[in-house]
Write the structure tokens for this entry.
Amino acid sequence: MAQENVKKDASTTAKDIETAIKQFNDRSTTVQKTTDYYRGEHDLKFATDKFKNTFGNLFKSFALNVCPAICDAVRDKLVITGFRVESDGEGGSEVKDLPKEAWKIWQANRMGVRSGEIHKEASINGDAYAIVWVDDMKQVTIYPNKSANVTVFYDEESPGKILWAAKHWQTPEKLFRLNMYYPDRIERLVSKKKSEDGKLPEAKEFVEFEPAVSNPYGIVPVFHFANNGSIGGFGVSELHNAMPVQDALNKSVLDMLVTMEFASYRQRWASGIEIEIDDEGKAKPPFTAGVEKLWITENAETKFGDFEVTDLEQFLKVKDGFRTDIATVTGTPLHYFMLTGASFPQSGISIEKLESRFLGKIRDRMESYGSVWENLMSFALMIENKGKGVRLFTEWQDPAPLSEKEQLDNIVVKKDLGITERQALIEAGYGEEDVDKMLLEKQEIQQKMVQSFNAGENLSNDNTDQQQTDVNVGS
């Protein structure tokens, strides 16, 4: 792409850089927290400082982490199967072939995997981004980007329209790179000094790294996937409401582990003995506790005993209660956290009933993400001078698929209601060419059966006539 003679407004760019750096810094803490919780790096809570000092190191890396199940459940349901166009008949084969052309770009960029990464990033941190441009080989390339590295600025006058975008990253030399994306250009900047602590420098520390790249398409080539986001705003992590309950779940399990640690050695007691006092006025322990120690006394009035075993069942109930709370606040089906035979659905219909709220959330994400994917792929086709003015539609895998038997049963019911045999076969999963071939073969078989039947009927009539002649001759 051309890299010179690009008009720039230095004062506007400087102001945009300040805004971008502020947005990066404001969101960095939130993004880091949700990332840590997904990875299982939680702040453990103990009942007292004494327990923390005693067991903190023992359970330092422990966390009963259900956060991945919340985000992965959303990601796993969002599978793109293709793109389609709705045309009024104009454009001919060129328009008809656009879905195939879009799918070629999709597969060339391995978006079957990368789209899942984008959906996962948006679920964890609330936002994900993709940048579309051409590589050194002049091929359209889709670059997935993390929430922490990219930000966008929306037009207040036209909500949903991106005015500009920014991306930052740190080089191995500890310098910060910053790209500013506009509808007419891409500016490439670099920090003057190294950053040893990994913090973004101020806007004034950035200078031009390379000449600006011309953007002839009039569209900011950055696409924003906002999870459950508001108009012209950033998204919200799927873990936002789950993190406080996750802390409580961890604490309930830690309390149970601490109790198990104490209960593993039975606490004993003794009564009817005299307690000696040392020089500092403190009581001397009359016995030394230990597995190999035996407590004996000459005092006939002394009694020994031990405390009852702690009931851990209550801890298990509390733990399961917090799992239920997490399922409630996130809209994730409970059987994703508690895989028991009684609660796990056995068919597509039962899944849809148990996951009705969850599937509603999935379809909402399909709608919001789908519109972004449509814009992204339309832009990719525009770069290749294809599909101008034609809107793409994203096609998704059914989030609540029925079993093959359930699908066939439904098709039989529809056929009884009046749909054609051809439509029934298409809904059964056969391609249109295969359906036409199957129907033609069926028609040919039926025609042969009719011909065979007619031939047999005529032969029977001939035999009857011959028998009648023989009778007349004999008489």
